[in-house]
Amino acid sequence: MDIQHLVDRLEDLIDEGRHIFGTKLTMIDEERALEIIDQMRISIPEEIEKAARVLAQRDRILAQANEEAARIVQVARERGDQLIDREAMVQAAQSRAANIVEQARQEAEQITRDADNYVLETLSRLEQQLNRALTVVRNGINEVNTPGQPAAPPMPPVQFPSPVRPQIEVSARPADAEQK
């Protein structure tokens, strides 16, 4: 279930509660509130799981890009070996292989950037949703506290670690380095 939907349900529950005349207090159905909170606890790991799947998909795409780059380099090397008799053709093949490797490296970097941006956006949205939900819960706690009863101490803000961006390098040896 979507965390935003659960937050909306919790807010509706508070809105539907009985307001105590002359106070800011509202009585709510504790069982329903706890049920919604339990559903929130279930939903949050699902969002985190989605982010993990995105990371796994990004890693799979990077691995495919690296395999393709290695295949292209191998094909270019094989062609270079076939044309070794002609110096000009060998140099052209090496230059083309280097261009292909560079192009593959640039594409892999672009895929990495795109995947990292997507993961960062997803995690940022999740963080915002969690902060909104935490604010709603804290407000509900503050509303439920009766006068004369000490208020619950404020909870420190939740800090999430910043995402780590792995760096992938694609490199290839020029064909002449193999001949020496």
Give the topology, please.
Layout: H1 3-16, E1 18-19, E2 26-27, H2 30-82, H3 87-144, H4 175-179
Antiparallel strand pairs: 1-2
Helix pairs in contact: 1-2, 1-3, 2-3
List keywords for this structure.
single chain; 180 residues; mainly alpha; Helix Hairpins; two-stranded antiparallel ribbon; 4 helices; 2 strands; 72% helix; rod-shaped; disordered C terminus
Describe the structure.
With 180 residues, this protein is mainly alpha-helical. It has a single domain (3-139), classed as Helix Hairpins (Orthogonal Bundle). Helices cover 72% and strands 2% of the residues. The chain has four helices and two strands. It has helices spanning 3-16, 30-82, 87-144, 175-179; strands spanning 18-19, 26-27. Strands 1-2 form a two-stranded antiparallel sheet. A hairpin with a 6-residue loop joins strand 1 (18-19) and strand 2. Helix 1 runs antiparallel to helix 2 (30-82), helix 1 packs parallel to helix 3 (87-144) and helix 2 runs antiparallel to helix 3 (87-144). The longest helix has 58 residues, at 87-144. It starts with a helix and ends with a helix. Residues 170-178 have low confidence and may be disordered.
